[in-house]
What does this fold into?
Amino acid sequence: MSFLKAIFKTRYEQFFTYILTGLISFFVDFGAYNVVFFVLINFGSNREMSSIIGNFIGMILGLITSFIGNQKYVFNKSKDTMMSNFSKYTLLFLFNYFASSGLIIVLSYFLSFILDIFNLSSTDLNYSLSKFLVMFILIFWNFFMYKKVIFK
It folds into this structure.
């Protein structure tokens, strides 16, 4: 029985630490995205380009935060594996960036369409909400990829 408790506790703690690390990375990524998005909008950039640039900057900062947290605290990997893990992490980042940028734009158009049906005004917040929804989806995808591919 204590063996099962140890396994459950280890897995539960690992996922909890992953969520905690992810929340910190989320606030870094989401915060940077919104700052860049709204600054660019205020300087006259179009929404799509502002979203793509904001997503890139937010994801880079989130990548660095997430990688350090996952490498050191979640998966307890040594510095010896850091470069190999970072290479795989970067490839996953590139996939996530292109997939999430497309999804954010598609979801923001979808949200605008839904809001128009109900005669509600659509705003730049559609992009922030879309970014939030995409990040929520990535939580589960990334945990699987980190555990089975990157930090195995």
User: Anything to note?
Assistant: Residues 2-150 form one domain. The chain is about 85% helix and 0% strand.
